[in-house]
Design a protein that fits this description.
CATH class of the largest domain: Alpha Beta
Radius of gyration: 34 Å
Number of strands: 28
Strand content: 15-25%
Number of domains: 6
Helix content: 40-55%
Distance between the termini: 41 Å
CATH architecture of the largest domain: 3-Layer(aba) Sandwich
Number of helices: 37
Strand order of the largest sheet: 8-9-7-10-11-6-12
Largest sheet: 7 strands, parallel
């Protein structure tokens, strides 16, 4: 028979059948998990076969401890279903920025399970994708991740996932990716694959069986699985704008992968407005069933317009309820929103000016309007200027270097040869002359040295006879550079250029002063040309300034070079080519030097963006720009860069519209014999044209607010989630594990290694080790833990919400994803344990970080569950003072009080004797739980309307998908039939039947989800004495 202690109802055991008397008291022998004890009979009670509710526990005066409530709340969080809990919060090795969680919230609400993240460069889109993956892992135990990105970004993705998300990903080619996707074991254990879009892209004729490349085989495999269960839980496509052209094989790859993925994320910095065709192309790929035609996006924007106006009105200083009704009716009159139940519900609730005057009611109403927005859960967009945490200033410092006489002669010579050469060429060839001019203005000494070396090699080859490889090198050298070098022999000596190098002298002086003043800091120097980087490296090392070079073609990866540079004992200066302008994070430095000036501001922004990005801790970043005085570079800087303030202000979306305009400027400046005045006039024309384009782009985006939903309300909710501890902390996990092990696995050794430090020694009992090993094996978890080893005391364990890679091989993190946590959660859910306690807690007011008056408070907690197209659970709190009828706390205050009480509160065992339990029961039942019941009904009504609207959208999209795909497959079938490909005709017919079957099953699932299930149950009642 199972029994428990009356004074400690969570402590349970089994009667052995033995008994004895002690001074006329009958003692029964009870086997607890931690041993056998003799307990007086009047201190025991039989455990009922059914769990008791908190009210039952309260009525029978069975009051538990803070640990009982803490275990219940932690278990509820670990269920992975709580709507208000953001499971990815504090679960990664990243700093907290509220805007990065907008995409997490949105994708969970997206009917298509897809989202386009279009944040500006430098705001951490990679981190947002990682947060989404962490959230999906926590909520749905998802294990299969596929990242597609440009080849140059694969190493960065691998390191970001490992260091910040605790995900060990593998970089794969097409062959390895295909093998993993085909492996049943990989699907069971999970995988994280990073592949390049170029490497996985299928050939043009991949559907033909004769196409034998691995890319073709992968494409055919993906196509064959479109009608089956999903192959990938989350697909991430970085730099997704490369998929915008529907005719390319890159777009084909994106579609093939998207069709076998449960969730999809596109990352891009593409501008967000209606006239951006790239945006529509990406939305069509992300959700082809909704965005079937170009005009669909316009219709959605038209339907959203009154919703956005209504939202802005609600959030304004003086909202007009009558104007709001007009906008609501206008929105409901649009065909796309006519049947929307959420709008009808808002209208039926009764809108009054009194309600509009309440700020909390208006904020909630604005959020509900935003969730109706038809693009609310498809696109998210954040700009640097909108991020409160982003306050880094840019300080550009121009350095105009006076030319020495020999440098001036060399500059004039090169310019003369280049212009003359350009005038003899066709317009479409003139861009070829730009490179030598740019290389010379980067570093005269370096460029001449590089050119002379090539010319000497060619001259030696000519004397011995040129073979085919030598001819290729002569073509690479080019007649223009050959002419420059041969003529330069009569004007300058290389040694003289090196000796008087004024530009290098300026760089050396800047570095020497700064590094002497700031000996712990690092400096990044950019140059476009490898010859310049090599030259600078030699001279700086000779002058005692240690440096590293980052450029293409090196043996070590970019990440390895950056890691060496980041090391405090490493080099002080990083010399980087444009390779370091993409996919590299250098925000640990605050100083950047442009040794040569990119004429295209996009390149400059990419450079500056390496240090002016998320994680930059300095208040100001400094950008030195070095160029020769009275040259084309100095004129471009003064009349283009300074006029548009391009160094001081981030370009944002402006980057996308610069390319062609600047390209024309480059050709014009060097393709004709322009005077200095004519050059300045031409630069001024470009400056004005770019300013006009920038203003137009800004106006377009300002007018596109109906593309972006979620304003201050959702950001406030994210901040509240963090402040209210609506996430799982390391301390939560540690106490959850220790409480359970001590109760259920006697003999387990658990101790803190050193007071005040979060490291523990854990030696599980033999039974616990066996059970944990079985749990890992039966659930095929991709996790090796030292807890099952015989020598686990040789290791130290750290309970941490952040699932990251440990620094020591003798250290193991225990996070929410650890097998021991998952096993305990599973066993608590499966066993009939009392998880709905009534507890009494004593709390010191000094431990409170919010003001609450002294006294005794009764708190009721309910769990609301809704099961439809989405499963949603929510913990709701209600609280009132025991002594004052009007002493109510709002739900956030009640939740905050409970969170502090379970971590800092003490046992209040005497509460059953000093508190009027009948009065507590009456308040809990008739007031608090009754109020929660009313709130539950309102909440359920909102979810029901939302579920119906979601079902309508999904059914509509499903039918459109069926029609569109059948039409395409019929076209393919006819093409195969025309060419006599009988086997492919039959295969296509099979695809059509599979499509119809899958759509039919999905249609049934959606219709079944209309018949939702909902439930409200009491989770806990707490009596808290605040002293």
């Amino acid at each position: 028979m199972r029994v428990r202690l009356i004074n400690d109802p969570v402590r349970t055991g089994i009667l052995t059948g033995r008994e004895q008397k002690r001074r006329n008291r009958r003692l029964l022998q009870v086997e607890f998990n931690d041993g056998i004890r003799w307990i007086p009979e009047d201190q025991l009670e039989r455990i009922q076969s059914v769990r008791m509710s908190p009210l039952d526990m309260l009525e029978q005066r069975k009051l538990g401890r803070p640990s009982d409530l803490r275990r219940t709340l932690t278990h509820m969080k670990l269920s992975g279903r709580l709507a208000d809990v953001i499971y990815s919060m504090e679960a990664t090795n990243t700093d907290f920025y509220a805007y990065q969680f907008k995409s997490v919230v949105k994708i969970l609400e997206s009917p298509s399970n897809g989202i386009l993240i279009a944040d500006e460069v430098g705001l951490g889109k990679t981190i947002e994708a990682g947060l989404i993956w962490t959230e999906l892992r926590s909520r749905f135990d998802m294990r299969r991740l596929l990242v597609l990105c440009p080849a140059a970004l694969r190493e960065k993705w691998k390191s970001e996932l490992s260091e910040k998300m605790g995900v060990e990903a593998k970089i794969c080619d097409a062959r390895e990716t295909l093998a993993i996707l085909r492996s049943e074991d990989a699907h069971s254990r999970g995988f994280a694959v990073i592949a390049s879009t170029q490497g996985l892209r299928p050939p043009r004729w991949w559907e033909e069986k004769e196409a034998d490349s691995t890319g073709a085989k992968l494409a055919r495999f993906l196509r064959s699985k479109e009608s089956d269960s999903r192959l990938v839980d989350l697909l991430v496509i970085d730099e997704a704008h490369h998929l915008r052209n529907l005719e390319t094989q890159t777009n084909e790859l994106g579609l093939l992968c998207k069709n076998v993925a449960e969730y999809t994320i596109f990352l891009t910095a593409t501008p967000i407005h209606n006239r951006n065709d790239d945006l529509f192309s990406l939305l069509q790929l992300l959700d082809p069933d909704t965005f079937t035609r170009r005009d669909v996006l316009s219709q959605i924007l038209e339907a959203n317009a009154p919703l956005v106006k209504a939202r802005d009105l609600v959030l304004s200083a003086q909202p007009d309820v009558n104007k709001f009704r007009e906008l609501l009716l206008q929105a409901q009159s649009h065909p796309l929103l006519r049947a929307n139940r959420q709008l009808s519900m808002i209208e039926q609730e009764g809108l009054s000016q009194e309600r509009f005057n309440r700020r909390d009611a208006r904020s909630r109403l604005a959020y509900r309007l935003e969730t109706v927005n038809l693009l609310a859960h498809v696109v998210t967009r954040t700009r640097k200027r909108d991020v409160q945490e982003w306050c880094v200033l840019r300080e550009p410092i121009p350095e105009f270097v006076e030319l020495e006489q020999v440098e001036e002669r060399f500059y004039d010579l090169v310019t003369e040869v280049v212009v003359k050469y350009a005038l003899q060429r066709q317009i479409n060839e003139r861009f070829l002359v730009i490179q030598p001019q740019r290389q010379m203005t980067s570093s005269m000494a370096a460029s001449l040295r590089a050119w002379q070396k090539k010319l000497i090699e060619l001259e030696e080859m000519e004397q011995t006879g040129l073979d085919e490889e030598d001819e290729q090198r002569r073509m690479t050298m080019g007649p223009l550079v050959t002419e420059i070098v041969r003529r330069s022999r009569d004007y300058v000596e290389l040694d003289h250029l090196i000796q008087v190098d004024t530009k290098y002298s300026k760089l050396r002086d800047i570095l020497s002063v700064f590094l002497n003043k700031h000996p712990q800091e690092k400096v990044v120097v950019f140059s476009t040309f490898h010859s310049t980087l090599g030259y600078l490296a030699e001279r700086l090392e000779a002058d005692g300034i240690s440096c590293l070079v980052l450029k293409g073609g090196q043996r070590e990866t970019k990440n390895e070079t950056i890691k060496r540079f980041r090391d405090q004992a490493g080099a002080r200066v990083l010399l980087s080519s444009e390779v370091g302008g993409e996919g590299v994070d250098l925000q640990f430095s605050r100083v950047l030097i442009n040794y040569d000036l990119p004429w295209n501001p996009m390149r400059l922004e990419q450079r500056i963006g390496r240090i002016d990005r998320l994680g930059q801790e300095a208040d100001k970043v400094t950008i030195w720009n070095i160029f020769y005085k009275n040259t084309i570079d100095s004129r471009i800087y003064e009349r283009l860069y300074e006029k548009l303030d391009l160094c001081r202000n981030a370009l944002g979306d402006f980057e996308a519209i610069l390319g062609e305009t600047v390209r024309k400027l480059e050709i014009d400046l060097l393709s004709g014999n322009l005077t200095s005045e004519q050059q300045e006039k031409r630069i001024d024309q470009t400056s004005q044209a770019l300013e006009n384009l920038r203003l137009e782009e800004q106006q377009l985006e300002q007018g596109a607010s109906n593309l972006i939903a979620y304003g201050d309300y959702i950001l406030n909710q994210i901040h509240a989630a963090r402040e209210m501890n609506r996430w799982i902390s390391g301390e939560d996990i540690q106490r959850y594990v220790f409480d359970y092990l001590r109760l259920n696995y006697p003999g387990s050794e658990l101790r803190q290694i050193e007071q005040g430090k979060p490291f523990f020694q854990i030696d599980l009992s033999d039974q616990a080790k066996l059970d944990l090993a079985d749990f890992i094996r039966n659930n095929r978890l991709p996790f090796v833990t030292r807890l099952t080893r015989a020598n686990s005391l040789d290791y130290r364990f750290k309970f941490e919400s952040r699932d990251a890679v440990t620094a020591s091989p003798y250290e193991e993190l225990i996070s929410q994803f650890h097998p021991i946590v998952r096993m305990i959660s599973s066993r608590i859910a499966d066993k009939e344990e009392q998880l709905t306690p009534a507890v009494a807690i004593k709390l010191n007011n000094a431990d409170m970080d919010v003001h609450v008056n002294h006294g005794i408070y009764i708190i009721a907690i309910s769990l609301w569950a809704f099961h439809g197209l989405q499963d949603t659970e929510k913990l709701s709190y209600a609280a009132r003072s025991l002594d004052h009828d009007d002493g109510f706390l709002d739900s956030d205050q009640a939740e905050k009080l409970v969170n502090i009480a379970v971590t800092k509160g003490k046992d209040w065992l005497e509460a059953r004797n000093v508190v009027d339990i009948e009065c507590v029961y009456q308040i809990a039942n008739d007031v608090l739980l009754a109020n929660l019941d009313d709130d539950y009904q309102n909440y359920m009504n909102e979810l029901i309307a939302k579920n119906e609207d979601r079902a309508d959208i999904q059914l509509q999209s499903l039918e459109q998908h069926l029609t569109l795909q059948k039409s395409r497959l019929e076209e393919v079938k006819q093409k195969h039939s025309f060419h006599g490909r009988t086997a492919l005709v039959k295969a296509t017919e099979g695809r059509i039947r599979a499509l119809e079957k899958r759509v039919g099953q999905q249609r049934l699932r959606i219709e079944r989800s209309r018949s939702y299930k909902s439930d409200s149950r009491e989770i806990a009642i707490a009596i808290i004495q605040l002293i």
